[in-house]
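Give me the fold.
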Amino acid sequence: MTDRTLTTTRRLHPAGATVVAVTGELDHHTAQELTQAIEETPFGSDAPVVIDLTGLTYCDSTGITVLVAAYNRAQQSDAQLVLVGLNADLTRVFRIVGLDQLFSFQPTVEHAISALHR
């Protein structure tokens, strides 16, 4: 059995968005780490959230469920939510399951911040 790890870090971007950076494998064994980070992140009409998945190497259905829960929270809070940094494999999976219909995707945090302020 492999040792699966996931780390999350949160920071406030100078433009006012909270950036949640995710690194590692997001699956059944590690999803609680991201769930907790999202629960501790302020969401609101004046508090956009960027989830930076640049360091994400794997995401299973449990991870997708966590991201959909973040989307639902953003919708309930009237907050903007953007996912950034998806690699080609994850982008393909997210499109297959229809997440491109829910989320806004941007290549980098700075692209996301620019898109939020349009």
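The chain has one domain: 6-116.
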